[in-house]
């Protein structure tokens, strides 16, 4: 980067940093991050959602068939894929070992596709994350003192970066397991550690929408009490999270009547729950 470009970047970032510091300075609670699919694409080179589905079309129809039959609706395309992949998985020798290990755990027609997607994601070498000149960024991320992270990502990169944080997978634990909003990761679209939790198909998104009002209420509470920052690179995954994110137009909005003080920048594990 040339000297003039560095100067432009510095001039751009300084006001942003100052504004962020003012928000944090007026809050007693630590911030929350909202992390989207672009995070994993940047640091571990994961595919876009469409590209990930395409990876699992070997042995069934071309992904273009499912995409066009679904009129570009990816959850619908995933549902159509899952039907054909289920037939393939139960008969193809490539999945013999996986069948022997997991056949009793599969519950629905989409279970085989979810299982193989989850297996692929859990086998990614996260120790190599950020080796393409992004080491400094990852080091900075690991040092963040945030109260929590909300994500739609299925991979385990956040758990690797924040090993002391407790993960809540899916909507039910977040709604009913009494999270403390300190040192926690909320994986609202599921996680590869639990294949059945993945929000993948048309049916999955329908169930997700049914509980959206309850999830929205939970997240509104978190976002009113904590400053928040969104880290997302646009992807073609359906952004149903936008149904409730529209409520959060003012980052760091104060809780009415709440006394504010200096930001609590200690690591969340060092705070009193």
Question: What's the count of strands?
Answer: 5
Strand fraction: 5-15%
- Tell me about the largest β-sheet: 5 strands, parallel
| Class per helix and strand makeup | alpha/beta
Please tally the helical runs, counting DSSP H or I stretches of 4 or more residues.
13
Strand order of the largest sheet: 3-4-2-1-5
Q: What is the H/E order?
A: HEHHHHHHHEHEHEHHEH
Shape descriptor reads globular
The first-to-last residue Cα distance is 44 Å
Please, what is the average pLDDT? Answer: 77
Spans where pLDDT lies below 50 across 5 or more residues = 1-13, 231-273
* Computed CA radius of gyration, to the nearest angstrom: 20 Å
Describe, in plain words, how this protein is organized in 3D.
By secondary structure, the chain is an alpha/beta fold. Helix content is 47%, strand content 7%. It has helices spanning 3-25, 37-44, 49-55, 63-69, 74-91, 96-102, 111-122, 135-142, 157-161, 171-176, 202-210, 212-225, 242-245; strands at 32-35, 148-151, 166-169, 184-187, 228-231. A five-stranded parallel sheet has the order 3-4-2-1-5. Helix 10 links the parallel strand 3 (166-169) and strand 4 (184-187). The model is unreliable at 1-13 and 231-273 (pLDDT under 50).
């Amino acid at each position: 980067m040339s000297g003039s470009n560095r100067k432009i970047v510095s001039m751009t970032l300084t006001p942003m940093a100052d504004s962020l510091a003012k928000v944090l300075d007026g809050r007693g609670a630590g911030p929350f991050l909202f992390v989207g699919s672009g995070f994993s694409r940047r640091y571990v080179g994961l595919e876009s959602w469409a590209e990930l589905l395409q990876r699992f079309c070997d042995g069934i129809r071309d992904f273009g068939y499912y995409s066009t039959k679904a009129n570009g609706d990816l959850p619908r395309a995933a549902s159509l894929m899952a039907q054909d992949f289920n037939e393939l998985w139960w008969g193809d020798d490539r999945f013999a070992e996986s069948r022997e290990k997991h056949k009793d755990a599969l519950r629905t027609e989409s279970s085989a596709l979810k299982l193989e997607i989850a297996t692929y994601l859990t086998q990614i070498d996260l120790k190599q994350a950020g080796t393409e000149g992004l080491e400094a960024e990852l080091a900075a991320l690991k040092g963040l003192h945030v109260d929590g992270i909300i994500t739609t990502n299925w991979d385990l990169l956040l758990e690797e970066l924040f090993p002391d944080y407790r993960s809540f997978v899916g909507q039910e634990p977040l709604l009913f397991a009494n999270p403390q909003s300190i040192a926690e990761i909320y994986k609202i679209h599921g996680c590869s550690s639990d294949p059945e939790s993945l929000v993948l198909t048309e049916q999955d998104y329908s169930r997700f929408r049914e509980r959206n009002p309850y999830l929205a209420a939970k997240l509104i509470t978190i976002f009113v009490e904590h400053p928040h920052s969104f880290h997302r690179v646009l992807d073609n995954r359906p952004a149903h999270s936008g149904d409730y994110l529209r409520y959060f137009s003012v980052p760091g909005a104060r809780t009415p009547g709440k006394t504010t003080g200096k930001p609590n920048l200690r690591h969340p594990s060092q705070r009193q729950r």
